[in-house]
Amino acid sequence: MTQDQTRNDQLVKLLGQLQTLTASGELHWERQKGSAHRYARWNNNLLILGPAESPAESNVPRYLFVTPFNSPACIEINSSDAELGSALLDLVATVERASSQEPPTDPFAISEEDLGRLVS
Question: Cystine design at 79: which of 20, 30, 85, 110 (Cβ 3.0–4.6 Å)?
């Protein structure tokens, strides 16, 4: 098995795990205010599903961007990928169903709690 195939197998497994966690409600996705982006926090990573257009409104390829909170490293999976695209689109559909009734949030809003930790 090639290194690329091993990597793709791991990414398909990751997408399946995220889909299972989303469907069970263990992974909570939020909708960014003013956007169709969905984001979630999982295992010290930020997950972003995009682009800004809703899948129902556009045929623009979808993507999943995963970045750890403690590192500049990242992973991006695009729905145009021949091997990973269908698994990503399955995740997008699951996230859309799970978060369709969620009110939009501002992921960059500063709460009183956040300020309290920063300002003593």
Answer: 85
